[in-house]
Amino acid sequence: GENVEQHPSTLSVQEGDSAVIKCTYSDSASNYFPWYKQELGKGPQLIIDIRSNVGEKKDQRIAVTLNKTAKHFSLHITETQPEDSAVYFCAASKGNNNDMRFGAGTRLTVKP
Amino acid sequence: DAGITQSPRHKVTETGTPVTLRCHQTENHRYMYWYRQDPGHGLRLIHYSYGVKDTDKGEVSDGYSVSRSKTEDFLLTLESATSSQTSVYFCAISERDPGRTEAFFGQGTRLTVV
């Protein structure tokens, strides 16, 4: 089955700097790659997603890039703010009911 | 926030006792899911439902059962709780298959088995 690895497990940046989180996946048939943000005491919330027919997608300060050949995708957050502090999860899916696999998560801390 | 309510939010139970967690949605979404979240493992799918009385197993289904008798309710039962089932449990819903579109998560239930 699919295996998703996520790095780093923790990331600390200064406010205003950029943050990059990377994920690799094992199944070349995966075609949907969402990123979720989880704040303390809450459930994960989708912040951006990308499909395999697109190489990059941006939404304000957040962008995701996908390299299908290398089977990795990354989350880029620019101009980080303290409210970006949270745990971020990547995931990969082939589009079936039960095959979504999540990475282990990255705890991002943005220092004021 | 999507209308998802998990109950209870916290529970401590003893090994060997049955436990039922409830997920209630007001969005009329077809798909409902139960995940568990453990350090170093992200979220892992336990069971899911694609309609009333239609359920199937996920990645880590051993020791768990589910039922969905109404569109809005999805129950997760631990027949005989074990310490390895200490975890945070999340319910999720989606209008379509979450392998293709956004899934909305509840606030989570922290279960401790002692």
Structure in words:
Helix content of chain A is 0%, strand content 54%. With 112 residues, chain A is mainly β. In chain A, strand 9 and strand 10 form a beta hairpin. Chain A is globular. Chain B is an all-beta fold and 114 residues long. In chain B, strands 2, 4, 5, 6, 9, 10 and 11 form a seven-stranded mixed β-sheet that branches. A four-stranded antiparallel β-sheet of chain B has the order 1-3-8-7, with no helix packed on it. Chain B is globular. The mean pLDDT of chain B is 93. The interface between A and B is medium-sized, with 28 and 27 residues.
Topology, element by element:
The complex is a heterodimer of chains A (112) and B (114).
Chain A: E1 4-7, E2 10-14, E3 19-25, E4 32-38, E5 45-51, E6 56-59, E7 62-67, E8 72-77, E9 86-92, E10 101-102, E11 106-111
Parallel strand pairs in A: 2-11
Antiparallel strand pairs in A: 1-3, 3-8, 4-5, 4-9, 6-7, 7-8, 9-10, 9-11
Chain B: E1 4-7, E2 10-13, E3 19-25, E4 31-38, E5 42-51, E6 54-57, E7 64-70, E8 73-78, E9 87-94, E10 104-105, E11 109-113
Parallel strand pairs in B: 2-11
Antiparallel strand pairs in B: 1-3, 3-8, 4-5, 4-9, 5-6, 7-8, 9-10, 9-11
